[in-house]
Amino acid sequence: AEAAELRERLRAVRHTVLVLSGKGGVGKSTFSALLAHGLAADETKQVALLDIDICGPSIPKMMGLEGEQVHQSGSGWSPVYVEENLGVMSVGFLLSSPDDAVIWRGPKKNGLIKQFLRDVDWGEVDYLVVDTPPGTSDEHLSIVQYLGAARIDGAVIVTTPQEVSLQDVRKEINFCHKVKLPIIGVVENMSGFVCPKCRNESQIFPPTTGGAEKMCQNLNVSLLGKVPLDPQIGRSCDRGQSFLAEAPESPATLSYRNIIQRIQEYCEQHHSQEEKIM
């Protein structure tokens, strides 16, 4: 009965993309926010961004929605909208202050994730982007299990070039294989920094073992792209603005646009394959 309820609620969601990372601090939430902005740039598409990073909900800040609250209607919780075609849901909207700590055990976290999927009235959605916490724990198992009642196109895994990060990403890839979660590909974030004055490139996080590219070759996973460091990304996130709109000519923006296009192509292909099977 529970699976049927979730399936019914998520029936109007066409594509679902999970954003994962092996460790914290690699820019996963930033990527989730910019992926949602990039997809919503097409005004014909309806995009939803669900933040299940329950202990560290940074999406409200990045989307410029701090202080907003969730409203209940007859059809469920209403998402908070950034644009007419971009809705957001996060535990951050349920806290009395952004500084409040969420001190919950696993079952309570799982209950909230289920509630988000069952009770939020997204309406017709082309893309549901799910920002997850780092690692391979309760929240990940729950979201994969609950969304299994509907459909997941796949996961995008975010890493930085150094071996310390790649080590945890290999665990994340292993997790995806074990729970039969398709992997759309890997994004190498903070991949080099080009000085705006002298134009020299520096490797802030040196890829000592060949970076994400070598890892993807070894594990037979797609590398979606490399996003260079740009200080403007951090400034835009702090202001709750879309970096893609604020710096359209930045090499990082061009890289993001290519990655987003590849994710869209994968989702469309995945959808058409599923329709053939059905």
From TrEMBL:
It is found in: Cytoplasm; Nucleus. Its main location: cytoplasm. The keyword Lipid metabolism does not apply. GO terms for cellular component: cytosol; nucleus. It holds the Pfam family ParA. GO terms for molecular function: 4 iron, 4 sulfur cluster binding; ATP binding; ATP-dependent FeS chaperone activity; metal ion binding. The keyword Aminoacyl-tRNA synthetase does not apply. Keywords: 4Fe-4S, ATP-binding, Cytoplasm, Iron, Iron-sulfur, Metal-binding, Nucleotide-binding. GO terms for biological process: iron-sulfur cluster assembly. Component of the cytosolic iron-sulfur (Fe/S) protein assembly (CIA) machinery. Required for maturation of extramitochondrial Fe-S proteins. The NUBP1-NUBP2 heterotetramer forms a Fe-S scaffold complex, mediating the de novo assembly of an Fe-S cluster and its transfer to target apoproteins. Implicated in the regulation of centrosome duplication. Negatively regulates cilium formation and structure. This is NUBP1 factor. It comes from Notiomystis cincta. The lineage of its organism: Eukaryota, Metazoa, Chordata, Craniata, Vertebrata.
